[in-house]
Each structure stands twice: as structure tokens, then as C-alpha cells.
Description:
The complex is a heterodimer of chains A (116) and B (115).
Chain A lengths: L3 E4 L2 E4 L4 E8 L5 E7 L6 E7 L2 E5 L6 E7 L2 E7 L7 E8 L11 E2 L3 E5 L1
Chain B lengths: L3 E2 L4 E5 L4 E3 L2 E2 L6 E8 L6 E7 L6 E3 L2 E6 L4 E6 L8 E9 L6 E3 L3 E6 L1
Parallel strand pairs in B: 2-12
Antiparallel strand pairs in B: 1-4, 3-9, 5-6, 5-10, 7-8, 8-9, 10-11, 10-12
Amino acid sequence: ETGVTQTPRHLVMGMTNKKSLKCEQHLGHNAMYWYKQSAKKPLELMFVYSLEERVENNSVPSRFSPECPNSSHLFLHLHTLQPEDSALYLCASSLSLGNVVGNTIYFGEGSWLTVV
Amino acid sequence: AQKVTQAQTEISVVEKEDVTLDCVYETRDTTYYLFWYKQPPSGELVFLIRRNSFDEQNEISGRYSWNFQKSTSSFNFTITASQVVDSAVYFCALSETNTGNQFYFGTGTSLTVIP
Lengths: 116, 115
């Protein structure tokens, strides 16, 4: 059983749709992350939140819009996506940001997104 | 420059063979952490181990063992007597003191254990 839960696990959407990915962590962590994993490519960090404030945005297109209403929940709002956005989207959390003792990043099961 | 290098893209072994997954990292920090994660076909990255830069003792957990060598900047992972359930993609990662926002991941090694 994972401490980080993502829904939906699978999503198929058209290029004109609007959908959202949801992530919830039950670990009492203060930092949350969105990663993108495309086939045959390295993990790409998309967004980082610490205590509900965005601290990193790695040049992600505006068709991806994150939202962190509290330290336990993280959303990724999707609109007018392209087929090349099809990928596995992984949510993760850690106790805090930074290289502190015991800080480890834990991942959810991922949301498989297909854009048609 | 890649901070974490996993040179082995894909490895296939026959069940019960031992296999070592290589990880080489690059950092100027004296304090850093190294990690290994397992990603089965379901998608979730499962945390396996965290090692800090001041602890060079090798660690063994069941069939898994890790060899940390600062002299060669390597943190290799060995699976003894591999099983089909070990088939997955394995990621090595690094977190540093001076770039606190990020965990740097390698590109992963896909391990297939053939029955």
C-alpha cells in the first residue's frame, strides 16, 4: 500500500478536453512533485511545491496547470494537450525540500495519460 | 552534464543468476544522498534504499546488496539469485546539499529475468 495515491490510474482524453489528475499523500510530507515519464526518456521534473507554494517550474507548457490547495493534495489540470503529451505522470512527496536527514522522495503509482 | 549515469540500458539474465546494476554519480558536495528505486510494469517507483555520503558500509537486504564507493563515485546494486519478480526498471538517484529542490535521477536500467 502506497502512501501516495493518484487518480485516475488511466486517462484517455481528446486534444480539446479538460481533465485533471489528482494526487493525495498520507505521509505528513510538506513537499510534493509532478514528474513526467515518456517512453524511452528520463524522468522529467515538472513542478515542485513546498508548503503549498510552487518553488520550481521547469519550463512546462501552460497547457499543464498545477494546483496545491494544501500540503496533502496536488492536482495537475490538463487542457488542449497534444499527442506527444501522452506519458506516465508521477506524483511524489517528500518530508521537505532539500538534503536533510531522512529526506526521501516517495512516488505514487502514476497516471497513464493518452491524448488522442 | 548528467549527474547520475546508468550506462546499462537493458539487461537480461536467466533466473537464479546474479546481476549487478551500475550507477555512477557526479557531485561537488561532501554531503549528499544516493537512492535506488524499482519501477515494475505497473508504474510506481518503489523506494529501495537511501545511503548518505558519510556511510560507505555496504548494505545487504535479503537478496539485494549495495556497494557504495566514493573513490569511484559509484553506488552499484546487486541482486543475488534473481527471480522473475525482479523484472523491472531500476533507477538510481542523487540529492545534494546545494541544489535542495531536486532529486537527480538516472535514465534507468531495464532488467528482464528470464524463467
